[in-house]
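Below: protein 1.
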Amino acid sequence: MAARKPEQPDQTPPPATVRTQEYAAGVGWQVGQTAPSDAFRALDPSGTGAPVGPVVHEHPGGYARQIVVAGALVTEGVKRELDAADGADAED
């Protein structure tokens, strides 16, 4: 008795997949964009840790908080902190 080969189903290649296009967000300070530069804000030197002064793009010396790094995504938290600094500057 001869051995029979098992039937093989149609071996069609899987359908081609198409990669979606990824577009970089614009460069700027809006949520979802890429930060064009570093952003820092000085902290109160008396030790309270409260942010003081304007947003600057180079480390101001002393104690400071880095809000965002150049090339990083601007998140809602970053935008909120930048807006809070702008509001504090307007009050001064």
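Below: protein 2.
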Amino acid sequence: MKKQLRFQWITMIFLSIFLGSSMYAQTDPKATLKDSPTTIIGFNHIGISVFDLDKMVAFYEKATDFEIVKREKVQQHAAVDILFGRSDVAYERVTFKAPNMLLELTEYVGQQNTKLTKMLPQGPGMTHTCYQSPSWKSGYDKFKNAKINLLSRGDEAVDLGGYGVTYAYGHDPEGNMLELEQMEAHFMKQAGMDSLWLQQNDMWMTQVAIMSPDIQKISDFYRGVLGFSPNRKAKLEGMERLDDIAGQDGVVLHATWYKMDGFGKMLELMQYEHPKTSDKRSKKDPTALGYTFSLEVSDIQQEYERMKNMGVAFLSEPQLIGEFYEVFAHDVDGNVFSLRQVVSKASAYSMQNFDY
């Protein structure tokens, strides 16, 4: 618990400095997932549906050094078809264990004719997740060595505000965007970060980032799903270094943050005013290439009924698949997320048993 509180201070200090140049800031800086009356535990995993599993596993294994904890093939059967809302679903999946959540890469049968595209920073959709590291164990350098396709300008990660954090955007080999954050020692010390965490971990994951053409609408949706308020809002503009990070001139964006579980984990909602986030939205298939994410819950039936009553569009009722009860849903923009409940509370795949 002390580790968690210390890292929450990092997030709060960073946002206070970062938002100092914004036109407006905070709503309720103390609001966190702990305020939620729901049974949501937090983010369980970031999922990426991939075209070439072996190629993508090699990339992320080299870039992150996360441990591969499972590789499995799932053949077509009734519960899987019900879960995905379509027939003949089969896939192969590799699960990485980051220090504070899971990363799942899945290759679905039938993707052979899918065209790869590069995600734009302005979206729409879930555009990226974030990999955070100490500056002396730079995730930026590790991803560069793994041959990331950098989107940000220059040969180094961008020092946005001189407060001890550098940033960069890039694309993995299949065009999925990701963010890299590197933190200096003095920033971590100022925030009271636990030295044991840094000794044990070189990199961890932090964000689910969703770009929407209507930030108020999607924020209202996730406020209902999560059961608590955002802790920060901001409008960011006139920041040359932000332009360098996004690789675009004249960036103007609106942002809302929900503080989730564990070390730095945030739901980040954004709407680009320039370049404008497109209003071309559709319901994404859970097997479609790109990002999804899951919320772990302790009572999936209760959360399914609660969210269904508030109008969340589910693909099915919860199904038992391997270690989890699971169900897919669409948010108001058509992005895919899932609810998960572990079958066994002792599961190594439950956030309750991660040391964060």
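Residues 18 and 161 are 7 Å apart (CA to CA).
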